[in-house]
Amino acid sequence: MLEQMMNTYALFFDWNQWVQVLTDPVSWGLILSLIVMEGLLSADNALVLAVLVRHLSEDKRKKALLYGLIGAYIFRFIFIGIGVYLVKFWFIKLAGALYLAWIAVSHFKKKAETDEAKPINQQGWLIRTFGLFWGTVITVELMDIAFSVDSILAAFAISEEV
Q1: For 80-106, what is each residue's pLDDT tens digit?
Q2: Which of 66, 77, 119, 130 could form a disulfide with 135 if both were Cys (CB 3.0 to 4.6 A apart)?
Q3: What is the mean pLDDT of the chain?
Q4: Interacting residues of 82 by C-beta distance below 8 A, sequence separation 6+
């Protein structure tokens, strides 16, 4: 398993792989589909993250979001490598499909309710342990991890190619 994951990560740094992908029109269609899908899935995520950092000063707000963005890229890189291995199992695909269907159904069920994000609990364990700024950054990172699950599952539904 570890060897397959390392082979997947090696493709990210293989120049020939990039040339092959960027010169293939089918790959461009997949990339465009992934960009549109990620944009649709990320619209509400951006709102939630903005609410999570609104209690910070303007300069710390930007830093927390920047750290969150860096962490999101790192975690997605890790999860894509793991996902390329896990997507080979039919029951993982089924679980992912059921999860995505549940997200869609629950979204439309809640449409009638108010969909208001709650601000961060400033008396919570993370804030008491790491301070206001780093507790907020950790909270943003945890939310990024949760948000990446549906994006990566949907990406693997479009293509199993790295």
Answers
A1: 778 777 777 888 888 888 887 887 788
A2: 130
A3: 80
A4: 5
